[in-house]
Specification:
By secondary structure, this protein is of the alpha/beta class. It has six helices and 15 strands.
Length: about 200
């Protein structure tokens, strides 16, 4: 069973449609910690403000995810779902992330290399794969294009498996054992995005 967590901030319909298209057998959209604890895989979509992730703590979902991850359940965070895997975000300093990866998410700079930088970062951009052992990116060509829409970004860390350059490099995909995240929207990223989701389903 795949638990897709609903915390009133995710692009749930598109994500569920993509998973269904790829043949996922049982998809449950849930806010229930007990469902998350019994899932084979967990997906955390996300669109919008980091403050929305506070609901995960309020509903007991943070602890449920932490317990599931500790026993080896596969986890995929999407967009804000990836940012939540870090310690937090300057977008909502009083809201803690899961802290699975070190570092804070920060807003794109207003200027980069002397020029104005538009924010949010919206549209197609390429992936630079920085590790060859990624399970999530298996079969994805280097420099493949994916779709973004975000104003905050996660830092580059040792578990970054792909980066994108916009106002400097940031984490496009992160992976450590059974915990994975992508800043882009795989459900909107055509063949590359479907390959990423297919890889996750096959884990």
């Amino acid at each position: 069973m795949i638990a897709v967590i609903d915390y009133k901030a995710g692009n749930l319909t598109s994500v569920v449609k993509a998973l269904d298209y790829l043949g996922a057998k049982e998809i449950v959209v849930t806010q229930a910690p007990e469902v998350v604890r019994t899932a084979d895989k967990i997906v955390l979509p996300g669109v919008g403000h980091f403050q929305s992730t506070q609901l995960l703590q309020d509903l007991g979902l943070t602890d449920a995810v932490r317990e599931s991850v500790a026993k080896g359940t596969w986890f995929l965070g999407i967009c804000v779902g990836l940012q939540w895997l870090f310690e937090g975000s300057t977008e909502a300093p009083d809201t803690s992330g899961l802290g699975h990866f070190a570092g804070m998410c920060e807003r794109f700079p207003a200027r980069f290399e002397g020029a104005e930088l538009k924010s949010p970062h919206v549209g197609w951009n390429s992936l630079e794969q920085v590790r060859e052992d990624s399970k999530l990116l298996r079969g994805v060509e280097d420099a493949g294009f994916v779709y973004y829409t975000h104003s905050w970004r996660a830092p580059l860390v040792k578990d970054t498996v792909a980066a994108t350059n916009y106002g400097g490099g940031f984490t496009a995909a992160v992976e450590r054992e059974n915990v994975m995240g992508v800043q882009f929207h795989p459900e909107k990223s055509s063949a590359v995005g479907l390959q990423v989701l297919k890889n996750f389903l096959e884990l």
